[in-house]
Automatic annotation (TrEMBL):
Transmembrane segments: none
GO biological process, one term: L-valine import across plasma membrane
Designated name of the protein: ABC transporter ATP-binding protein
Residues of the ABC transporter domain: 3-235
Keywords: ATP-binding, Nucleotide-binding, Transport
GO MF, one annotated term: L-phenylalanine transmembrane transporter activity
Matches recorded under InterPro entries: AAA+_ATPase (IPR003593), ABC_AA/LPS_Transport (IPR051120), ABC_transporter-like_ATP-bd (IPR003439), BCA_ABC_TP_C (IPR032823), P-loop_NTPase (IPR027417)
GO cellular-component term (any): plasma membrane
Pfam families: ABC_tran, BCA_ABC_TP_C
Organism: Psychrobacillus soli
Length: 240
């Protein structure tokens, strides 16, 4: 088991963004986190990656309790993440953007550049390595987000809506990349609102609603789960 989230809560004043959630992730699994808007998905990622402290509960990574450790320390330990809102360093090149991630593990500029070029080839951005970050299309900015996270050489990669805003053919292009990363040994937790994507690539799915886990299972189990159907088809109509 690579990740264990034990009864974790995050309350913002009166808002119970995450409320007593528990789940685990096995090595090399692809686990989807789904739920309606505001369900607490991104907050969960912020807690796992150390961007926010928990209100209560514990988080274990590779058997070690890592609750409330700083984000840069968790990054060094192997937890990488992308952000829902893509934020490339707009005025430096695509290659330099990725190198920022690579410096997490490598002090030498040459070594960081070498690794970053390999990653750019893998995500299909090598030809655009000298372009400025801001000049990329949204689809390419999403690839760059993945590349920046990969450059930190994560064992566990948290992908936050990397396909939101992409057209169907762009989505089809990025799916094999995610499967390839898993084949290379990276464990993936993915927040994704595109059901066909989640159903296709995930081994298991965790469903959250109002900060609480309401279901967990294989894509098939989740698709037929009464609580999930209620959460999506009840008074909540939009989801992400
Ligand atoms: N820093 C914060 N301060 C106060 N409230 C917050 C903060 N971050 C998130 N929230 C609230 O916590 C709840 C969960 O938000 P979160 O962004 O985790 O949901 P989500 O499932 O990722 O939503 P979406 O699908 O819209 O991205 C929401 O009610 C949100 O307004």
């Amino acid at each position: 088991m690579i990740l264990k989230v034990n009864n974790v809560s995050k309350h913002f004043q009166g808002v119970k963004a995450v409320n007593g959630t528990s789940f685990h992730v096995e090595e090399k699994e692809i686990v989807g986190v789904i739920g309606p808007n505001g369900a607490g998905k991104t907050t969960l990622f912020n807690l796992i990656s150390g961007s926010l402290p928990v209100t209560s509960g514990t988080i274990e990574f590779k058997g070690e309790t890592i609750t409330n450790q700083k984000a840069y320390i968790l990054c060094k330990k192997g937890i990488g993440r992308t952000y829902q809102v893509v934020k490339p360093f707009g005025t430096i090149s695509v290659l330099e953007n990725v190198m920022v991630g690579a410096f997490n593990k490598h002090n030498s500029r040459d070594q960081a550049a070498k690794i970053s070029k390999e990653i750019l080839k893998q995500v299909g951005l090598y030809e655009k390595r000298d372009q400025i970050g801001n000049s990329l299309t949204l689809a390419d900015k999403k690839r760059l987000e993945v590349a920046k996270a990969l450059a930190t050489q994560p064992a566990l990669l948290l992908l936050d809506e990397v396909m939101a805003g992409l057209n169907p053919s762009e989505v089809k292009e990025i799916l094999p990349l995610i499967l390839q990363l898993r084949d290379e040994g990276i464990t993936i937790v993915i927040i994704e609102h595109l059901m066909e994507v989640v159903m296709t690539i995930c081994d298991r799915i965790v469903v959250v609603h109002h900060g609480e886990k309401i279901a967990e299972g294989t894509p098939k189990e989740i698709a037929n789960h009464p609580e999930v159907i209620k959460a999506y088809l009840g008074d909540e109509v939009s989801y992400a």
